[in-house]
Amino acid sequence: MQTNVSYYQNKKAFRVLVTKSFTDLIKLKKEGNQTSFNALVLQMMPQIRQYANTQLNIAIKKGHFSKNKYKADDIIDQLFIEIYDHIEEVKKEEHFYQWLYKKTNALLEDLSITEEFDDFFFKNIDDYSKPEWDAMQEKYSSDADGDGHLKLIEEFEDRSYNHNDYTLNHVFIENKEKKWIEKIDKDLSEEDIKKHISMVLHNLPSAMRNVFELFTTQELSLEEIAQIRNNTIKDVEHLLKDAKKALQLSLLNRYTTKIEY
Asked: What is the C-alpha to C-alpha distance for residues 8 and 103, in angstroms, rounded to an integer?
């Protein structure tokens, strides 16, 4: 399994860009230079747009509204306004990154992206057989244009911003779990792992999925996620722990015919 180094470098570079732009944005607003302000904000939008796309695609796939009802650009257009009107809410430049996601989440919630969660999947995740997992994967992949990636809304051209490179390191993090990484990694391709994790996350409760994504693909800390979601740190820790546990059980149970443990 190979790590997409350029992908993670882009993530870190994006956070640096957002943080370092804050002072300039404040200055441009004070000067009344909204054109330059918007031009600088535009540089931050590819990754925010990808994040909004992911949330909208899941809502569409779950049947909450039609494909053509909303687009990520609807979120981005409003986000430009929110940033310009409320950027003074941010007291320190290092808080600007998480504030962007907090505003984006709020705009998504305003579109009434809600999810009625049937807890049957989560409660019974340890009971599915390998054939049941395979059938679930086949249906998920078929619904997602056959490759396990949601493509319901147009995608941004820069692929480095536009996919979730889930890895086993996102699921198994403790030293005692290293043996599972080695065993699963030996028998499964990188693409199989990404498809499986994406499929399981799709079926988890929205709060659990959102915390996992913010922590792994957006590289936000638990404290930052708590502020974005208006949760306690303890709640976020619990959601992340449950998401990882569900993913661990699903991988181990699905591939027990390949992996003896």
From this structure: 23
Give Cβ neighbours of residue 36 (< 8 Å, ≥ 6 apart): 28
Q: How far is CA 72 from CA 55, 69, 121, 207, in A?
A: 9, 11, 29, 20
Phi, psi of 122, rounded to the nearest 5 degrees: -65, -45
Amino acid at the residue 174: E
Structure token pair of residue 168: 């086993």
Confidence (pTM): 0.72
| Segments in the chain forming alpha helices (H) | 5-30, 34-42, 45-61, 72-86, 96-110, 120-123, 130-143, 178-187, 190-203, 206-216, 222-229, 233-254
* CATH fold for the domain made of 5-110: Rna Polymerase Sigma Factor; Chain: A (1.10.1740)
The answer to whether residues 225 and 231 touch, using CB atoms and an 8 Å cutoff, is: yes
Max Cα-Cα span within the chain: 65
User: What distances in angstroms separate CA 242 from CA 133, 175, 215, one per listed residue?
Assistant: 19, 18, 13
Report CA 228 to chain centroid distance, whole Å. 13
Would you say 128 and 136 are in contact if contact means Cβ atoms under 8 Å apart? yes
The domain segmentation of the chain, as residue ranges, is 5-110, 120-254
DSSP designation for 261 = -
Which candidate, 86, 98, 56, places its Cα nearest to that of 227?
A: 98
The CA distance from 49 to 145, in Å, is: 21
Task: Quote the distance between the C-alpha of residue 248 and its chain's center.
Answer: 18
Residue closest to 216 by CA, chosen among 231, 229, 197, 235: 197
DSSP assignment letter at 228: H
pLDDT digits (tens, 9 = 90+) for 165-201: 565 555 655 555 566 667 676 777 778 878 888 888 8
